[in-house]
């Protein structure tokens, strides 16, 4: 009974928060986008020069400005208040109706058991900093990462791609993405960007703004080795080169 009410409460809070966010974007959308773009630029440029005093000031000033802007948003304030109210309701309900846990023992079903092995990934999801593939031979595995601020470099010349289609998926907020592909491998590129440049082999897309485009080599669907590249950038450049 309470579970249904709790779900309804969360749904209403999400709807109200979304409504407030839409209102704020209608009246302050251009201003907010400009401020966050400037702050992201300060963080990116300052991060490149963090060894200098000016770079540190620019970097931390960008984070401070972004935090202050976020805290001043009406929708963000509502979300904080809603979370606090929700936590208070949870504490009250837990004290009023303490949960009793009864252990349930089941015999293992051999028909449903299977072995799982965890592999170490080439990349990690990070908030800030550059990432790149090793400069020595490494075992290939599909890449699916999301990053905050920083450059990503993927060099496929130090690995052996398997037969069929391999996939690289990179989602980045601010930074550049460089991907080096061997000549014998067919390539498909799907790129989405808010602001930046894109270079795919001999094709250059300068000053791309809020665009989505796709390219693939003429032998892509017939090739025995294929690499599918899916990239998303808010601000930054994409470069795909042969090596």
UniProtKB/TrEMBL annotation:
Q: Which GO terms describe its cellular component?
A: membrane
Give the top-rank taxon of the lineage listed in the UniProt record for this protein.
Bacteria
Transmembrane spans: 12-45, 57-89
Is Hydrolase one of the keywords UniProt gives this record?
Answer: no
Pfam families, alphabetized: LiaF-like_C
Q: Which UniProt keywords apply?
A: Membrane, Transmembrane, Transmembrane helix
* Domain (Cell wall-active antibiotics response LiaF-like C-terminal): residue spans on this chain: 129-240
Species the sequence originates in: Fictibacillus enclensis
Its name, as the record gives it, is Cell wall-active antibiotics response protein
Q: Source organism lineage?
A: Bacteria, Bacillati, Bacillota, Bacilli, Bacillales
